[in-house]
Amino acid sequence: MFGLIGHLTSLEHAQAVAQELGYPEYADQGLDFWCSAPPQIVDSITVTSITGQQIEGKYVESCFLPEMLASRRIKAATRKILNAMAHAQKHGIDITALGGFSSIIFENFNLDQIKQVRNRILDFEKFTTGNTHTAYIICRQVEQASKQLGIELSKATVAVCGATGDIGSAVTRWLDKKTDIQELLLIARNQERLQALQAELGRGKIMDLQAALPEADIVVWVASMPKGVEIDPTVLKQPCLLIDGGYPKNLGTKIQHPDIHVLNGGIVEHSLDIDWKIMKIVNMEVPERQLFACFAESMLLEFEKLYTNFSWGRNQITVDKMEHIGQLSVKHGFRPLLV
Ligand code: NDP
C-alpha cells in the first residue's frame, strides 16, 4: 500500500475544506487549533496503471499549515510531520511520499535525528520525498511546453528560481546535461550554495530575481516560499514560459497576457481516472486525472514494489535517477501537464 502525506496551502484554505471533508469542528478554528490537531487519514485511493495493475493507497493530512513557519511555530510544524509519518507507518503503509513542505521541514530541521515518535521507531526506508519524479516532470515540461510555444531551447535563457534546492538543483543538472539551452540563470538567496552549484555545473549566471526576469525566456519556479511573490509581468520577455512548481504557488500574481504562459509545474496527468477526493480539495483543474508528481512517485514505487526511499536527503538527485523514475512514469501511464 502507498501513502501520501500532504497539507493545505493556508489557514483559510484549511478552514474552507474542513467542512467538505466532514470535520465541521475544524472549520471555525484558528492556527492554534491546527497546531494541536493530530494527523488524519482522509482519503482511500485505488489507482490503475495502463499495464492493468491496481494498487491501493491512503492520503494522510498532516494538519501542517505554511503559517506555522511564518509565525515561527517551528515545534508544531516539525511535530506535524513526524506524527504524520508515524501515523502512516502505524497503518501499515509500505511507501509514503512527503508532499509539499513535509520534506522541506524534515530536512531543514534535521528530523532524521528523531527516529522515535512515542512508542514507534520510524523506518525512513518507507518514505520518499518524491522530488526525483517532480524534477523529472518539470524538466519534461520545459522541453515539451517550450516546443508547443515555439521557444527554441538552443536559443533560450532559462532561469531557475530556487536553483540550489533539492528540486532546483536536479532541474539544473538535467538542463545542463540533457538539453542544449543557451544560458542558465541561477537564483536563490544563499550565495555560497549558489557558487557551489555553479562550480558543480561549470556554468550558470548567479543573479537576483529582479535582474533575471527580463532576460529569461523560461522561468522555472521551485523556491520554498510560504507565500507567492508578486511580479510585474510587463518586465517579462514575450513570449515567456513560467513553470510554477511551488506548493504553495511561487507566483502571487495572476498573469493574463496572451504571450506569457503560466504552467502548473510538477503536475502529472494520469491516463485513467483515479477515484479520490483529495485533488479536488487542492483545486486541481481535472482532479480525477491530475496530481502532484511527488505523490505519483510513491504510486510508481508501489507499482514496482520498490519499497525504498528512492528520493532522500538534499541535492543528491542524479540525471540517471530522473531517467529511471521517468521510464516508470511513462510505463504506468503518467505524463507531464502541458499548456
Ligand atoms: P528546498 O528547500 O530543497 O529548496 C528551496 C530553494 O528555494 C532553495 O534554493 C532556496 O535557497 C530557495 N528559496 C527559498 N526562498 C527563496 C526566496 N524567497 N527567493 C529565492 N529563492 C528562495 O525545496 P524543494 O526543492 O524540496 O521544494 C521546492 C518547492 O517545490 C516547494 O515550494 C515545494 O513545496 C514544491 N514541491 C512541489 C512538488 C510537486 O509535486 N509539484 C513536490 C515537492 C515539492 P535559499 O534559501 O538560499 O534562498
Task: Tell me briefly what this model is.
The chain has 13 helices and 16 strands.
Description:
By secondary structure, this protein is α/β, with parallel strands linked by helices. The two termini are about 35 Å apart. The model has no long low-confidence stretch (mean pLDDT about 95). Helix 7 (about 130-150) packs across helix 8 (about 165-180), helix 7 (about 130-150) packs across helix 12 (about 295-305) and helix 7 crosses helix 13. The protein has helices at about 10-20, 25, 30-35, 65-70, 75-90, 100-110, 130-150, 165-180, 190-200, 210, 280, 295-305, 320-330, and strands at about 1-5, 40-50, 55-60, 95-100, 115, 120, 125-130, 155-160, 185, 205, 220, 240-245, 260-265, 265-270, 290, 335. The protein contains 13 helices and 16 strands. About 35% of the residues lie in helices and about 20% in strands. The chain binds NADPH dihydro-nicotinamide-adenine-dinucleotide phosphate. NADPH dihydro-nicotinamide-adenine-dinucleotide phosphate binds near residues 162, 193 and 223. NADPH dihydro-nicotinamide-adenine-dinucleotide phosphate (NDP) binds near residues 162, 190 and 223.
What keywords describe this structure?
binds NADPH dihydro-nicotinamide-adenine-dinucleotide phosphate; 37% helix; 6-stranded parallel β-sheet; alpha/beta; 13 helices; 5-stranded mixed β-sheet; 339 residues
Catalogue the ligands. NADPH dihydro-nicotinamide-adenine-dinucleotide phosphate
Beginning-to-end CA distance, first to last residue: 33 Å
Poorly predicted tracts of residues: none
Structural class: alpha/beta
- Report the β-strand fraction as a percent range: 15-25%
User: What form results from the Cα inertia axes?
Assistant: globular
The helicity comes to 25-40%
Question: What is the H-and-E element order?
Answer: EHHHEEHHEHEEEHEHEHEHEEEEHEHHE
Number of strands: 16
Give the number of helices: 13
Spatial sequence of strands, sheet with the most strands: 10-9-8-11-12-13
Mean pLDDT equals 96
**Major sheet attributes:** 6 strands, parallel
